[in-house]
Specification:
about 210 residues; mainly alpha; Four Helix Bundle (Hemerythrin (Met), subunit A); about 5% strand
Length: about 210
């Protein structure tokens, strides 16, 4: 998980370094009330920088509140308010004021720091994350991988360009997590029907 996260974080860095992003920095993205720049700010902070911040904080002793990445997302999805969503958008917009080059430089520094410490963290390392809830490091990294994969696609659609290629195995992990989020939130039957009957990409079971 740690190696995949780091590899895909470099995909994020390469993606936001694209000159087309600088040209479109202040134009609207596909996400509500977010420019290309604020989407990039959200992607950089939410999928990489925040890991630095949590690792640099004191490690909690437990107990573990979220046993999986999917449990984290299912709970957060049910608890975020309109004010929370506005705060998330505002953080992305604030980071965008650094400018394209500023965000790239900050992300590069943060990623270099992570590359030096992440693989040496103990297997049982715990983090205090959203609202002080406790997760295992590797489970939290999967939540960040989800953020990377989903928002890289948002960015590609916003620019009307071909999507960037994810690190090996990243998309499969994210799809598996997404299916489990759906199971937790909507139930097993709903997910069976979505995956095998209702969805655009469903498996054609005859």
């Amino acid at each position: 998980m740690r190696a995949t996260f780091l590899s895909n974080s470099h995909v994020v860095l390469n993606a936001i370094s694209d000159a087309r992003i600088a040209d479109a920095w202040n134009t609207p993205s596909t996400l509500e009330d977010q420019t290309i720049g604020s989407l990039v700010g959200h992607l950089a902070r939410g999928s990489v920088w925040v890991v630095n911040e949590y690792l640099n904080a004191s490690a909690p002793t437990g107990p573990v509140d979220y046993e999986s990445a999917s449990a984290y997302f299912a709970d957060v999805a049910n608890s975020l308010t309109a004010q929370d969503h506005e705060a998330i958008r505002n953080r992305g917009a604030e980071i965008a004021t650094m400018g394209h080059a500023g965000v790239i430089n900050e992300l590069t520094q943060r990623l270099n720091e992570l590359s030096g410490i992440l693989l040496n963290e103990p297997q049982e390392r715990l983090l205090s994350v959203f609202a002080g809830r406790v997760m295992r490091l590797d489970d939290y990294l999967l939540t960040r991988l989800v953020e990377q994969v989903v928002h890289l696609d948002d960015l590609a659609r916003s620019l009307a360009v071909d999507p960037w290629s994810y690190a090996s195995g990243a998309a499969a992990l994210v799809i598996e997590c997404g299916a489990d989020i759906g199971r937790i939130r909507s139930g097993e039957l709903a997910m069976v029907r979505t995956l095998f009957r209702d969805g655009e990409a469903c498996l054609p079971v005859l």
